[in-house]
Protein 1
Amino acid sequence: MSQAVPQRLRSHPGYERVPQVLAYLDPGTGSMLVQLIVGGFAAAGVALKLYWRRFTSLFRRNKAELGSAEPDQDR
Amino acid sequence: MAPRGRDLAAEGRVEAGSFRDHDSRVVVAPDGVFRVLSPDALDDWNALRASRLWAELQAEARVVATEPAEVDGLPDLLATEPAGALRHERVPFVSYPYEWPFSMLKDAALLQLDLNRRALREDLTLKDASPYNVQWRGAAPVFIDVGSFERLRPGEPWAGYRQFCMLYLYPLMLQAYKDLPYHALLRGSLDGVPPSHARAVLSASGDRFRKGVLSNVLLHARMEDRYADADGRRVKSEMKNAGFSKALLDATLGKLETLVRRLEWTGGDTAWTGYGEDNTYDAESAARKAAFVREAVGRRRTRLTWDVGGNDGTYSRIAAEGADTIVALDADHATVDGLYRRLREERRTDILPLVVSVTDPSPDLGWRGLERASLERRGTPELALCLAVVHHVCITGNVPVRELLDWLRALDATVVVEFPDRGDPMVQKLLSGKREGANPDYEKATFERALEERFLVERVDAVSATRTLYEARPRA
């Protein structure tokens, strides 16, 4: 379990491409996600895809909350 | 352009409010405002400068006039080595969102969104969304934080959305939907109104279906609670993989633009909004008052004039005949909003209307009390008009007459001050709720003695049976 999350993270196709240049402003996780609703119809597809991936991940791996922090992460 | 070889590190004063973005820092020198850039920020600037947008924005004067500065001695202010510097034009008088009436905050929000949407077309974006990055030339907004433009990182959601909500959208919604003035909230917290606080005010059944509330306030606050412990970087990456795109970012900005455009607040009919037409003056007294002010204004041209208790701007307009910039201060939000809307229609760039109460003016705020400066630290006037205001300060505000004059003297400006005596109908009205003999120092003789002690009175005119005007110069 403790190894599962980083492994799954790395398995994301875009994982290595996560930009390391961080904005000085913390955009806030909830504030990023709510943009999928504020964006209206245009954003609905992306929101569906995001949640679909999360849903299907339930069958691939252990159940995990979207973006949840696990104790073994670097914090 | 600054002469080559100058040492900004030695000559400049670091602008205390510019520390948040670690990629650029503002230094104020005697001959201009300079921005020191990190290597990353320099690359962003070069991308902006090479875009068509930059030329357009400079031509439209929507972004502060900026040029690369040849500076040899760059101060060591950043976490990285400084890589370059820019020089900005100065704005005539710095003001803050907690001093702006509704329509100014709304116009600043629309400028913010417009710049970001236009930047997207050139694969640029704005890294934040703070109204402190907007300043004014009279009634024309100008974006001052050139360091806010950066190259777009495709697939990332808008970093400034939360800040936009807290400092622009929620304050506007609270005013438009609930008639709740945002000035005290923004002054109380420089970061603005958090989603959970906006939800506390806007979650009643009558409000939740108002435009924009459900998504931007209620869901936003809920998502923030729910994902408080989530790993933001991972969510960002998941959103990117799910296909978050530039088009979507633009859709979000576009929705917010429509929402902000629809927010309206008229302020209703406060005691002051009709004051210009319906005051205690007859036509002859008003004409004498205008002539008195005009003579003082015409004596010598000033860089900065304050119109304290500026009301509908009648005397600010006269002051504008002899000043580069007039700051019209008034405590009444609706009146200031109305003045701004008229000045905007006339495209005036010389009169800056601000919601400020003289008895409770903007203090020093933020990190170490230096981030946002008090009203007076931002520049004092050479001429101050105090017309139809002394009785409000001294009777309603209970400021002793001598202390009001101490404050005026401390401005070190020529003053044109009006004293309505105790027999004046407005003074009577202000005293009517108080016990007999309240504010005993509010007497013409007391006022004149205190004025003479601090100023050389150059002209006096009893413009009506109960009101006297004085033009006075500070004693050395």
Note: The longest helix of chain A spans residues 41-60.
Protein 2
Amino acid sequence: MKVNRSIEEINEKIKTGKAVVFTAEEIIEVVKEKGTEEAAATVDVVTTGTFGPMCSSGVFLNVGHPSPRIKLEEVYLNGVPAYSGIAAVDLYLGATALPPEDPANRNYPGDFIYGGGHVIEDLVSGKEIRMEASAYGTDCYPLKKIDTSFRLSEINEATLFNPRNAYQNYNVAVNLGPKTIYTYMGVLKLNMGNANYSSAGQLSPLFNDPLLKTIGIGTRIFLGGGIGYVTWHGTQHNPSAKRADNDTPVSPAATLALIGDLKQMEPRWLRGLSFLGYGATMQVGMGVPIPILNEEIMRYCSVSDEDLKAPVVDYHRGYPYKEGGELALVSYADLKSGSINIKGQKIPTASLSSYAGAREIAATLKEWIETGHFSLTAPSAPLPSLEAGIKLNALPQRDPEQKEVK
Amino acid sequence: MVKQKIVLRFPPHLVEQPTIYHLIKDFDLMVNILRADINPKKEGRLMMELSGEELNYQRAVEWLKEQGLRIMGLEQQIIWRSDRCTHCGACTVICPTEALAFNRPEMTVSFDEYKCVVCELCLKACPARAMETLVENANSR
């Protein structure tokens, strides 16, 4: 390969305001016009973005000690339970947590009007959060009850830590059943009345670095309107998923675990969501800069919606009961056109991930880099890719009564 | 005296009738048209303020209903809160009249309240809950 650029070289150019940056959408035309080699020779960074519902998200909080001190046991933030099974005033609030009095699907389909994601949005908006907590009391932590409120600026730490974000590709959900169903992929009308997808496609971070050749542990990213980092591979990370000739997966594959300081984020990019009949969650805005180290990385970044395929999956029986496989493979170009064809049936499509948001994130990250506000980091360790041979497990369902005989 | 803001919905065959003329002449009401969308052979919508004697107003409402017009309070209108909309597009396959539409290549959602039939399906299909009614809006404040 003729181009061999280092992260250090790119950062030198960022420092002097000379870095050439395109978004993953813009770069498609550039590569078409100039060819991969010339584009690789001139472009330093390609920025990506995605803004979709990401359930595996949440925030670690240290709320500080009252006087006398307390070892928090049962904790509610605006009525939503937070996990306290760590140190005394440390908490984890998950995006899908629900108030115990939420009727959930007892009133089917449930509204799920306020959950953990909404509390996080309120926190980052600077609103006052009510905290009601109880404890069993100890010699060192005597307080047994507290009912107070705090704002984000008044607590010690609020660290967004999302165990699984940025899915590399996702299912297209349809309903083959005879009734409307309510899923985490939205409302699905009977007899394939609609097909919902959830990926930014050509702008999506992991579609632009399919084999994780640049993204690794410590990669600095756009997260929730601020700066964050890749900490690990995400849960359910499955780089071994089947891939097309361009190395992009044709089913959900790699994932990322992300971290960042909530105090420098914006409510615009961390939005509480209510999925009818499913639950509460959070829409997370994130974007990854991809350093154009050589022609190979440039080629990966030039991928367009026509070349990216997603599996169509039935959410009536197929997904919930693991029955049957995918119904078809469709391209993101087709999905974004407004309809797809399955078995001769024209099905209207809709996205759950905001492409307009993804565009804005990639453009913002581009601006940060061009103006020298954001430099790139080299990963301190790679994420597991093809060579790891990862296989996803299903939960063993044993009879607890039948003890294994040694 | 009463003063009411209402929305009148005309079925296509009534669009060409002089309804407003009758409201003024027969019921002595003051009519202040706020918005109108009347097309030949299509359903029409008229947002207006009516004021006059209580009795006349009640009789006018009865008469309008007899004519086959649908009358809705302004609070039954659907509001699209663009500040809450994340432009995902999930609502656009649920909306039966394409009042909520997805614009390409901008990839943004838009709401045409004249096409809206207030079925309210979008209220709960929107994960970001960007669709509201005036009543709901007032309650949440």
Note: Confidence is low (pLDDT under 50) at residues 137-141 of chain B.
Protein 3
Amino acid sequence: MNRRSKDIVASKLMLLATIFSSLVIFIMAFALFQRSSPILGTQSLSELFLTSSWHPTKGEFGFYPFVIGTLSVTGLAMILAIPICLLSAIYLAEYAPGKVRGIVKPLIDLLSGIPSVVYGLWGVLLVVPLIRHYVAPFAGATTTGYSVLAGGIVLAIMVFPIIISVSEEVFRTVPFEVREASFALGATKWETVKHVVVRKALPGFLAAIILGFSRAFGETMAVLMVMGNVAKAPSSLFDPAYSLPALIANNYGEMMSIPLYDSALLLAALILLLVIAFFSILARVVLIRVERRSV
Amino acid sequence: MNRKFVAIAAVVIIIASVVTYNYFTSPEEQTSTITVSGAWALYPMMVKWAEEFQKIHPKVRIEVSAGGAGKGMADALAGLVDIGMVSREIYPAEIEKGAFWVSVVKDAVVPTVNKYNPVYEDILAKGVKRSAFLGIYVYGNITTWGQVVGRPEITDEIDVYTRSDSCGAGETWAKYLGKKQEDLKGVGVYGDPGLAEAVKNDPLGIGYNNINYAYDAKTGKPIEGIVIAPLDLNENGQVDKNEDFYRTRDQIIEAISKGSYPSPPARELNLVTKGKFTAAAKEFVNWILTDGQKYALETGYLPLSEERRAEELKKLEG
């Protein structure tokens, strides 16, 4: 093969590989849509998502409790994670000496490598009893400990690495000249950080949060083990709840045994896929624009 | 560049040949594999059977994994495993999809409470009526331990635990109450061991387990921290001599075989496959129904009666 044909072959192969990996998500979405059409045919979307009765053997598939459960635990995780991640990212980007950053960053990235089921076990062993014996009595409630709060705490820790590392990168892209200008005007370091750096980096930070949100939204094993899996929309932080991914993981065994159940679970899977795809694309678009601006 | 390419290619070829070695050896040297997955209830028994069977058939490899009866059924119907372990009865919808099953041993689901329960002694002395379980698990009108034992001054709330995964234990316990697993209220915990842990860690907890997760395999007594709640079968408000068989695993197995412990929550455990058992899997199941039965008692299960065994063998062959 002469050099020119090698060139063409190599580029076409890479194109094929790229097309294949980008097509996968469309193939998945299409397959899920096909398999969930039976249940979409029998009930309207509003019926499915606004009714709260989940009794598959009677043909009742109300997803409302699971949607609320997923949104509550993910929302709580974000509320817990955002302040800590913002402050950590600022410290790592602006204040930390190089050596400290060199140790802390890998340590935080280590958190993202820990398997979900390990987080779940740790949650069951530590977080659930903590909530049952200390937090709930302190707040005047009684609970078994398996609750939205437990899920929120475990999820918040799981999304630390992604939010902190993306935010830290974003803060580093703020050009030094901007900081210098602020110092020249007599601002202190904190004033600079607060009014200049964070302001400029805000879109990127939002993107980091969105990425963290997607990760938390789809998290299965850890949430399944600490949330209590009760198919009723939670009315307080100490109530147990049931998330969409946990629903799928717990019940895919019954799929074959009850009519329409497989269709319902695959619809849940399709919803998860679409929500996460949407948020990931949104975050990517924002990040690209941030990078473009800083060039 | 060329040398590196040759070196990498050589490594890839070596690894590939090691991995696919099995597929190229002649039939006599080839090992056959039987894959088994499903109910936690059957898992200890299946592991023992696999051990013993592989001792006399060294060319057969048996891989066993748990995950719940629902998973076993789903895997078997999808053709992902040769044998699915299902610790409940098979439903018509599953038979329509091609499920074929044989029963192999019997065991039971027992209700569990924590050793440090405030009314621990009352429960052991009076037992718990079926209607009380219905009130706790299904209707939700029994919420305090005082209500369970008839001492209204005790207002400690009951922490109800059930199984979150689709499993035989849940279905069987629900069947005893005349309902389905999805009707059982309570915090859903994953897996048999998970439920036992949850009750062990909560003095006000109530749960249910297959006997091999409620009792310690070595000592034969209930596992540390857990007490089996006796069923008040004749509903007379106390645990009579003939209702008192929960102290050791052997006692409860005897009670199951005599019928003193009702079925449900005692039930036969089944192995399912899609269509029919064939080849190595068929041989294995045949062995389970003949020589394999002798390992049941020592592992904590009840072997099938002679007639049931003959029935199931006929089903397997026929």
Note: Chain B has 15 helices and ten strands.
Protein 4
Amino acid sequence: MIEDQTAARKGWMSLLAKAPPDRLAALLPDLPDHALLRSPESGSVMVRGRIGASGGPFNLGEMTVTRCSVRMGCGTVGHAWVQGRDKSHARRAAVVDALMQTEAAAGLRASVLDLLAAEAEQARTIRAAKAAATKVDFFTMVRGEDA
Amino acid sequence: MIADTLSGGFADAPTQSARAFRAILEAMARPGTIHTVTAAQPPAPLSVAAGVALLTLCDGTTPLHLAGTVDRAEVRDWVAFHTGAPLVAAEEAAFALGRWEALAPVNRFRIGQPDYPDRSATLIVEMDRLTNHGPALTGPGIEIATWLNLPETAGFRANRALFPLGFDTIFTCGDRIAALPRSTRVEAV
């Protein structure tokens, strides 16, 4: 049960972190009352990945992130780490994270998260299609010794 | 319960931490003077001043030791959320927090090395009261003499004898803060 909640929360936090700040602001112009536990602050994090064939961690590079933590009037706590240095984006994402743990979750999912997910998927598809158009199929000549 | 450990940090970190740092700097530069700090609400039993000192001085690169009654889950969670300082044993700590009795024996803390005297610990000592009555202090930053109610004198005199090595001390009580750097000479009483 806890794992299910964590996985779902990971999903929407990831979506909010990567969403375009302007789009999120357009979808959710007004924020309900909340208190800042950690006011928005930007910094850099090292992005690591398993790039090599051996699977060892590799420092891919640093990226700018902004983090924020809020508490809603009902006591629910929301956290956000978003890419870029847009402080209102981090704050908005933290509020959405908090609201997603309350009864407002279903409405918010329909009005904000599903739209963001659809747009992200569409952007990914377009990019994949552009990349696919440049694909080159190589073929290997039959070599003498195989014949 | 979770909310308590998440609240109480600086609401306006750039301004408040700069003011707090200035107060701590003044206290350290003029040993024995008492300064007032505000803006942190750490969980009990930490005083406001101890919370301010932690928020201002500690981060992920400064190992912290919690001694005695302050080593409890609320304080550990609060430190983790607001500063990210790793909690370590006394021998490895860059900062140590607790009452003087809990910090003893103080010779287990780092005093630096002859070529790197800055690799030493700073003790944040929680006090029941903080007044300018007590052993006389003389030395750098003090015009003639100041007085401060130190918890003991022998430990600080032994620390002064190690100069330029030794630990530095910050005293906190409520929202007031004072300091005793290793360079200050403490009167024998």
Note: DSSP finds six helices and eleven strands in chain B.
